[in-house]
Amino acid sequence: MTPGSSLPNFTSGGICRRRPAAARGTADWQAIGLLAFIVLLPPGSAGAAGSVLDPISASDWQRADAAHLLERTGFGPSAAEIDTLHALGPEEAVRRVVYFEGIPAAKLPPFDHSGVFDEGLDPFPPSRPATTALAKRDGEALGVQVKAGGDRPIQPVVNRFFYWLRASRLETNRVAYWWAERMLTSPRPLEEKMALFWHGHFATNEDKVRDYRKMLQQLELFQRKGMGNFRDLLIAVAQDPAMLAFLDAGVNVKDAPNENFAREIMELFTMGVGHYGEQDVREAARAFTGWNFRGLEFHVDPARHDDGEKSVLGARGNFDGVDVIDLILAEDVTAEFLAAKLYHYFVRDTLHDELRGELGELLRSENYELRPFLARLFASRDFYSARGERILPPVELVVATYRRLGLEKIPGNPDFNALTSRLGQHLFHPPTVAGWAGGRSWITPGLLFERGNFILDVVFPDIAFIPPDRYPQRTPNILSVHEGLRSGMSISQATQPPGVAGNMAASNAMVDSDEAFNTRYGSYRGWQMAIERVKPIPRHTARLDLTTLVLDGGAETPRDAVELLTARFFTVQPTPERRDRIAGFLRDSIGSDDLGAAASYLEEPLRQALHLLLSEPEYQLG
Amino acid sequence: MNHADRRRFLRGLGALGAAGALPLWARQTLAKQAPADDRILVIFELSGGNDGLNCVVPHGDDAYYRHRPGIGIPASALLPVDDHFGFNPGMAGFKRLWDRGDLALFHGCGYDAPSFSHFTSMAYYHTAAPNSGEALGWVGRLADAVAPEAPSNFLVNVDATQSLAVKSARHTPVVFDDPRTFQRRGSAAEQDVLARVGGGAVNPEAGGASNTRAYLREVARSGRDAAQRVRDAWSSYNTPVDYGLTALDLDKIAACIAAGLPTRLYYTSFRNNAFDTHVQQAALHRRLLTYATDAIAAFLDDLERLGMADRVLLLAFSEFGRRVGENANRGTDHGTANVMFLAGRRVRGGHYGESPDLERLDDSDNLLPTTDFRRVYATAIDGWFAPGGADTVLRGSYPVFDALT
Predict the structure, then answer these.
(1) Which of A323-327, B65-69, B175-179 has the lowest mean pLDDT?
(2) Res. B10 pLDDT band, cuts 50 70 90
(3) Three-state DSSP state, B230
(4) Is residue B287 less than 8 Å (CB to CB) from chain A?
(5) Do B132 and A448 touch (CB under 8 A)?
(6) Residues lower than pLDDT 70 in chain A
(7) How many CA atoms lie within 13 A of B188 on its CB side?
(8) pLDDT tens, A473-508?
(9) Rounded CA gap, B126 and B43, in Å?
(10) Degrees (nearest 5) of the Cα angle A111, A116, A119?
């Protein structure tokens, strides 16, 4: 921001963070500061009316509350974890969960790269046509030269193009596995849960970014800064190569600004529709011109940056992107928007205006520091009144189920990514720039069936499972090319679209022999090259011992077993009628009421009973 | 007719509702009108970006052949539409619908500041809200507007995953792919128990009687209802109508309609970016259009057979058209404006909207849209399915074409 800026209250940089709220010198700010002060009064002194944000008292703190806190801030807590947290009392429990007091830093292994990338692949052209055009112009692209002669001189370049598309996609699925392992094993699960929140908030899709390295780097940013200050995070995201690639930063240049990023930052990341005008978007886009990336680094191209005066949200000045972010953060609505989104994610779907305003003030009074905000939220009576009202997002459902089953690794069968995509939440592939809609939209009749079928696939593994990271199940064209080539067909013959062989064959073959490259062959060859480099995902199944779990837990009858499993897996119990029915099923299956006597053949009926139990709709609630 | 005359003529047709283009025999049935709450709208998505210029071919415009010296389809090979347009030779199904006045073509459909990403542009068509972060689909919002009480099985989406288009605030769309496997899997021993998942009474005094829980139990029940009905509908469905090589899920929808499901909105898709014809597109594109139009025409024939033709309207679209000029691989790259379709007995067959000018392209050599695609949605909604509902559903006012009776 230039010194001539018409916004006297703003100093350059960090306006919201560096100055205490009450010192901003306007009546509004003073009022807000005062309100924030009231909101922050210690427990017991909030006055007669009180607020739903008042903390839960130590005397009200039940074991179920500790379970609720762990469930919402992590993934499927164990009984021991719940007991430990319950014993701490609410204040200390929240500090442990949010500030990790008494929890050592996670010693989790870093992502194990397969080694699919090399320098020739960067910068990666935006499309196959752009790649081949580049090859024709320069005689090489992606680090591969055009052939001096022979058939299809550009083919090696095209092969490499498809190699990277495939390798990046497969490697991204490995990153998802790595992340899921962290959710399963991290002693600081809220870091992973916040990363998951930010991944949905700053939704970025590998299909467009086409670089697992950028996706991983963005995830690591969320893991590292996701619980810090929102301003820091927002700036880091605005300068994050995956985000810059995803929202077309490369084409946002002086004299031809692209509004994609400026629009999304206002609409989806900070304020929401209706709180800014088209003019603000256009002017903000100018402030972000020239922002781009080189490799995995943020890079500003001064020649492409528009350093003229802009008018954004009522302020005028020679703003750059960070200035615009600060202008946005100074809007009341920004803190409310973000606070409401966090509330919806962690507490419940509904939020009335008054509480929304209160939450916004709280976040603003903390200068967008997330930890104190979350600590306040997780200590509040309101938070504990929302127990069992949240539908678990697919990724959380799957990880929580594995934790409750006592698994220490994410199974390779079922495939985590295929499974979560069937359930509607494929990591690194959010459906739109708005992320996942969440809440009730997670559930459709078909999806509810799939959530039950998931349990079946865990307790009785699918022996017809085919690893999707090796076998191109969903791309049958690749298989037909493969089979054609193996049976001695020419590339032209083998790559004909299925069914075209008849009267079109001659003309197709003629055209094909003239071509500089063959895309279908490239796609096939790219797959081969990718699976040679991308490390395979281990395909172990869940190794379970429900018999020991149930007998060691003291269950003596089928009824005991169902009650024990219900207590272990459910926040909201299924109806008594259903629990009776499932206990009856178990009794009929083992032909007895004595679990101990049936121990040697109990496992299979127990797994069926667990499948039935976890198929109940209440299992989706947490 | 030169190009300018042609465009004036098309505008004129739009103003007249193109009734003149309708064969007399086709207009004789127009008097019969289904009550508004019996009407069924089927949305059919052509994923991947259908090449509109090689689909409804402007053979009367020399510029078309200049842009497409390799893949331009000669007039003599086209299935005749009129002296300016012809259908791709593969589109026998649409030719049949056109000749009987059951097909409306909407030219030049698109939106401002177009995205060339399949993913993004499709989301714009799904939400009817380009360049925004709208979270609900327009079909879902339509269901919310027409049936706010959200009865079971109102909205069906045949696909492996739920489309953003049917994402609704109130409804839980019935989403299935294969009707035979739309069920809870489990061993024979488990079947009795599985058949009543979500049963029993909730004791409100025991706590845990939240709205969310009630919602889940409702979905479980409607899934149970739908699964059985869908499976029954499919197993009892048997048609003599030839849907061609692939029915593209329209037979499943016909089965549901035949079985009397209370569904009024169906959504399905020609999947997997099939129409993304970057390379050697001629034979492939023709074949895709054959599959699609065979299936759509057969679907409408099947509805005639069932006596349901007056109750059903089909809307077909793609997320964008393709570049005007062919590329070096005898294919086409991602483009902008495209043709959209409404098909069914209630349609006034003809041309609507202005055909984009092939001589005046945008900076990226793409067509300049002449018709906001939401006008076609508005036409389906206000013109027939739910008169007066378009503004609410589309969150804005889009002039309706007089293309429906």
Answers:
(1) B175-179
(2) very low
(3) helix
(4) yes
(5) no
(6) 1-49, 106, 497-514
(7) 0
(8) 877 789 999 999 999 999 988 987 654 433 333 333
(9) 11
(10) 110
Chain A residues touching residue B131 (CB < 8 angstroms): 259, 263
What is the distance between the alpha carbons of residues B367 and B370, in angstroms, rounded to a whole number? 9
H-run or E-run covering B46: strand B40-46
> 3-state secondary structure string, A508-568?
HHHHHHHCCCCHHHHHHHHHHHHHHHCCCCCCCCCCCCHHHHHHHCCCCCHHHHHHHHHHH
Kind of pairing, strands B40-46 and B265-270? parallel
For A152, the token pair is 């299809």
B391 and B374 Cβ atoms separated by less than 8 Å? no
Helix (H) or strand (E) holding B177: none
Instruction: Give the A window 241-260 contacts with B, CB below 8 Å.
Output: 259
At A377-400, the pLDDT tens digits run: 999 999 999 999 999 999 999 999
Contacts of B280 in chain A (CB under 8 A): 508, 511-512
Q: Cβ contact (<8 Å) for A608 and B215?
A: no
State the pLDDT at residue B209.
Answer: 67
Nearest by CB to residue A440, choosing from B199, B215, B279, is B215
Hey, which residues 260-279 in chain B have their CB within 8 Å of chain A?
Answer: 278-279
d(CA A439, CA A346): 11
Nearest to A174 by CA among A434, A469, A476, A485: A469
Cβ within 8 Å, pair B222-A615: no
Least confident of A92-101, A198-207, B68-77, B198-207: B198-207
Q: What pLDDT is attached to residue A139?
A: 96
Tell me, what's the pLDDT at A503? 35
CB proximity A110 to B under 8 Å: no
Percent of the residues in chain B that have a pLDDT greater than 90, as a whole number: 68
Q: Where are the alpha helices (DSSP H) in A186-275?
A: 189-201, 206-209, 212-225, 230-238, 241-246, 260-264
Residue whose pair of structure tokens reads 């024939």 in the numeric block: B301
The token duo for B282 is 């001629």
Give the separation between CA B24 and CA B8, rounded to whole angstroms: 24
Contact between residue A285 and residue A310 where contact means Cβ atoms under 8 Å apart:
no
Distance from C-alpha of B385 to C-alpha of B37, rounded to nearest angstrom? 8
Q: What is the Cα Rg of chain B in Å?
A: 22
Q: How confident is the model at residue B33 (pLDDT cuts 50, 70, 90)?
A: low
What CA–CA distance (Å, rounded) separates B203 from B214? 12
